[in-house]
Amino acid sequence: MRTSKPGRINAGFRGRLGNFVLDAELSVPATGVTAIFGPSGCGKTSVARCIAGLQHMTDGFCAVDGDVWQDHRSFRPVHRRPIGYVFQEASLFPHLSVRGNLLFGAPRIAGAQIGFDEVVELLGLAALLDRSPNRLSGGERQRVAIGRALLSQPKLLLMDEPLAALDRATKSEILPFLERLHDRLSLPVFYISHDMTEIERFADHLVLMEQGRVVGEGPLHTLHPIPLAGRTGRHGDCSTRRKSVGKTTRMPPMPKDFHDIDPNRVAAILYRTQDDVDTLLADFAETLARSGERIGGIVQRNVKDGTGCQVGMQAIDLMTGREISICQPLGSGAMACKLDAAGLAEAAVAVARAITADVDLVVINKFSKQEAAGEGLRDELADAIAAGIPVLTAVPEKCLDAWNDFTGGIGTSLLCERSAIEGWWHDLSSRMKRAREARLPADASTALLADHHVG
Description:
Helix content is about 35%, strand content about 25%. It is α/β, with parallel strands linked by helices. The chain folds into two domains: about 10-235, P-loop containing nucleotide triphosphate hydrolases (Rossmann fold, 3-Layer(aba) Sandwich), CATH 3.40.50; about 265-440, P-loop containing nucleotide triphosphate hydrolases (Rossmann fold, 3-Layer(aba) Sandwich), CATH 3.40.50. α5 (about 170-185) links the parallel β7 (about 155-160) and β8. The radius of gyration is 23 Å and the shape is globular.
């Protein structure tokens, strides 16, 4: 497959990324939509990053429609590869209007293959052109991000789970626009998703991956029935394990591909039963919010009676300051309680809102027994980590093994002390600020691309 052929996209990448081994070869048509699908952590995003030039594998090859981007003699850097990359989060420039974001980085050439008016019409953006990004919904922001990628006049469009941070209703709103792109543009597209229902809507070709390898590829209708591509839940395939009694139960998978995430951006406060981690985390988060930091997610405050006995709980949406006070006690006089179904749904919306807003820090109160069992806010926590946004949570010592299984061992462990948390955030936020300041003035478009999924 490591040959250059007109009408084909041929790529192969082999090497180690931390503890992960990538050994993937693929050859697909240089037309239509090719979906890359497989269990979480199988290397889908790594392949996309290698094609984009964001990840340089020494043993790598990439040729698009006869144009060699990488082989054993040469490596074309990301800014010289004619690609449009659409990430999970839109990351629009907040100081520019929708029109300004669309035109940012668009080459000023005569006879452009994809015109401004065409993109605006295809994506339904006419009514949004003069708005600022902070007045857009999540679906609208992602449509603008897609339009900006198209107007860069790419020869290949890479879409890395572009709907992952959107709720089901917003996904349904944006999917018809993706179908229109497929029907009216000849541009080849790689579409990465955990959701086979998305892929079925408009993909022509399917690449199946497992454990860093391509295990199948071909027209969608020929591969769709195989077990790997069966109907799945929200985050893709679930593995099955057997309990000691002999019954089969479905266990939650590692919900996202985390091995490309900077471990410094994932921090867990390890605490014991006697530690008041709720107050510690809430005080820290609310201090940041009051100082003007862009943070989101939820924290918890325990409600106590006059004798100091815990009688309830409030969950607080950090973006809005609104209290989610619905809870259910765990037994009479219990010293713990948890959100009921309604409160949990509100908390999930709060975290999803923070991810869509691309805040600088997402705080999720705990990774406890619920999340360890695949419930609670586990999915939202996975979405935040996979989006590359810094994440802070608290993990009880008894759930440490489950946390390590969930993250694949990445992340930073913090003592249950205010100084430890503040030190972590001061160091991380300072490095993020310096990186932004160093990159944007020199080449803002390259920096915007490189800032995603890069530590």
